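Please check both lines for our workbook:

___
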Amino acid sequence: MIPNILTTVRMLLTPIFAYLVLEAKNLPWAAVILILSGLTDVADGFIARHYNMTSNFGKIYDPFADKLMQITTVLSLTIAQVIPLWVVAVVFVKEMTMILIGGMLYLKHIAVHSNWYGKAATVLFYTIIFVLIVWQGIPSLWMWTLLAILLFSMLFAAGGYLVSTIEKIKKERV
């Protein structure tokens, strides 16, 4: 199915992004790969929903690819000293928690779908990280403001997912 192929492309772009940041030290091309990754994310979701190509596999595979790209992105950029270390800690804890919750729900055959907060947080992630990559001389206050917006949106999305999860579990028990 086309959405899963696009997700596979995103998975393949992840190590390329890390290589460009860490080994090639080529941030402009890393920014291009980041945007391509974001576009595959938007495209696979649109195609899956619009053309009724959703699958149980895709419901797990797509978020896993997203989380892998996001963790790889912040880790690579922290090592390259583009963003501060604490960003990795927050993103890593948030994403690993989401993976664990998603995995437990999957084992119980409970599917909690993405919501608009998660989609908005993902768009903000790609946009803000892109800005931080291409604008290396960004004033410190702007960088901290963008990072605060990024982390707030990610944590807000995680909170929304948690609320949806609790509601879904309550409905499953009734």
Notes: The chain has one domain: 2-173. The CA atoms of residues 3 and 45 lie 7 Å apart.
